[in-house]
Amino acid sequence: MDDLSRIALNIIDSIPIPPTQMYLILVSENKEQIGLAIQSFLSSQGFETHLVRLSSKMVQGQPYLQNLVNQVVKSNSGIISLLQPEHATFLFDTFGRPDLGYIQPMKYIYNDWLMPAETIRRTMSANFTELKEFKNRLLSRVENAREINISTTKGTNVTLYPRNWMHSEGEVFCTPFEERTCGKIFVDGCVYWGPPKRPFAIWINEGRVINTKEIETDDLQHQNVLKDLNRDVNSNIISELGIGINPNALWNEHLMESEQARGTCHFGFGHNKNYGGTVESKYHFDLVIQKPTITIDNNVICMDGVFLN
Predict the structure, then answer these.
(1) Can you name the residues that pair with 295 across neighbouring β-strands?
(2) Rounded to an integer, what distance in angstroms lies between the CA atom of residue 59 and that of residue 66?
(3) Nearest in space to 28 (alpha carbons), one of 80, 66, 71, 72
(4) 150, 265 in Cβ contact below 8 A?
(5) Are 254 and 119 in contact (CB under 8 A)?
(6) What's the longest Cα–Cα distance across the chain?
(7) 212 alpha-carbon distance from chain centroid
(8) How far is C-alpha 173 from the geometric centre of its chain's CA atoms?
C-alpha cells in the first residue's frame, strides 16, 4: 500500500462508519489530493461521497456550507474536514474547537484542525496497527495512576495527580487535579511553531505558574507564552498532561505535530472543562518537552523518551 492510500485508510478508520454510509469531504486546495484519495477509497467500497473544495478567498463562514454541515450531522452521516488556516473562521464557527468545546457531536466527524498538509502526510501514514497496540499498552499502565512525575536531564521535575485519561491518534492525555501540581518545566521541545530559540523554565506551585515575571520579553516565542499565561485569571493554571504516541510525528515541527511525537510530553494551560477538568478560561495552549522520564507511582515506564517494556 502506498503512503497516500495508507493516509486515506487511517483517516477513514479514525471514525466509525456512519449509519447512512455517506460522507461529506471538505478540503482546502492544498489538501485536495488527500481528499481525493479518501473519496476514491470510499467509493471503491460502495459508500456515497461528496467532496467540496473551499475557495482560498473564502475567509468567512458561509451560511450555505454551515447549513450543509448541519444537515449532514443531523442525518448521522460522516464528515471528513481537511482545511487550512485561511478557513479557520468557517471551521471554528461550524464545528467549534477541541480546546474550548465542540459545537457539533464529533462521533462521525474527522477533523484535522488546520494541521499542515505535510503533518497529515507524516502522522497519518504511520502503522496504525502498531500505534493502537502501543496506545492500549500505555493506557493500561497509566489509567489507574495516582501520581505521575515527569523529569528530564535538562531540569524538568514536575509531579501531577491525574483525574481522568483520554486519547487520540496522536496522544494519551489527562487532566490533573490542578491545585496539586507542583514543580519545574524546562521547555525545550516546541513553542507554537517550533523549538524555542532559547529554552526556558516555568515554575508551578499549587497548579499555577509563579514565575511569569522571569520570562523574557525580547523573544517572540517567549512573548507569546507570556501573553497566553496572562490572558485571564485562569490561563496560567496547568490543565493537561499529554504523552505523544505517534512514531512518525516530528518533535521539532509545528505544535500540532510536535505534541504527537513519541518520546515527548506536553503540558497544557488554561481551559480544560471540555476534557473533564475544572478550569474555565478563554484560552488553552500547550508547551512540549523532549525526552521525558515518566514515573507512575514510583515505577519508571519511560526513560529519557524511550518507553520500557
Answers:
(1) 149, 300
(2) 13
(3) 80
(4) yes
(5) yes
(6) 59
(7) 25
(8) 10
Q: What is the pLDDT of residues 140-166, one digit of tens each?
A: 999 999 999 999 999 999 999 999 999
Cell of 3: 503512503
Beta bridge partners of 216: none
**Tens digit of pLDDT for each residue in 91-131?**
999 999 988 889 999 999 999 999 999 999 999 999 999 99
| Strand ranges of the sheet holding 157-160, from the earlier edge strand across to the other edge | 208-209, 200-205, 182-187, 157-160, 148-151, 293-296, 299-303, 306-307
Spell out the domains of the chain, with CATH numbers in brackets.
Answer: 3-123 (3.40.1830.10), 128-307 (no CATH)
**Comparing C-alpha atoms, which of 229, 234, 212, 233 is closest to residue 278?**
234
Torsion (CA) 105, 111, 114, 117 in degrees, nearest 10? 180
pTM, whole model, 2 decimals?
A: 0.92
Chain mean position to CA 193 = 14
The C-alpha cell at 82 is 481537511
